[in-house]
Amino acid sequence: QVQLVESGGGSVQAGGSLRLSCAYSGYTYSRYCMAWFRQAPGKERERVALIDSNRGTSYADSVKGRFTISQDKGKNTLDLQMNSLKPEDAAMYYCAATGIIYNCADMRYWGKGTLVTISS
Fold it and tell me: Is 87 in a helix, a strand, or coil?
């Protein structure tokens, strides 16, 4: 059974940094996509950063140069380092991963989220 558990959310001042972590278990696919999404109240869910096992990393334009996604296969974690945070980065952040279908647009597994709030 695949499980994804996010941690690291909290409140930070604008301009500050946070590091989110997603601990995953039971995940054994050799071709996969793992990603961080976010959703703010009243807004659509947005994919923030992605790791594709074959193609590397990609980022939403809104976070490019500020956020870094990384995976530690030894620890089974997917991290999101967020720097130079802006008020518009406030959202619930979710970790997600593909299943047997290797399609980055089709995330099969989701965590429950971790909340990031930004004070100006």
Answer: helix
| Whole-number pLDDT of residue 74 | 95
From CA 4, how far away is CA 84, in angstroms rounded?
Answer: 26
Q: Are 51 and 35 in contact (CB under 8 A)?
A: yes
CA distance 30 to 21: 21
- Read off the pLDDT of residues 6-42 as tens digits, 9 standing for 90 and up: 999 999 999 999 999 999 999 999 999 999 999 999 9
Question: How far, in Å, CA of 114 to CA of 52, rounded?
Answer: 22
Extract the tokens encoding 15: 């301009």
CA distance 40 to 118: 12
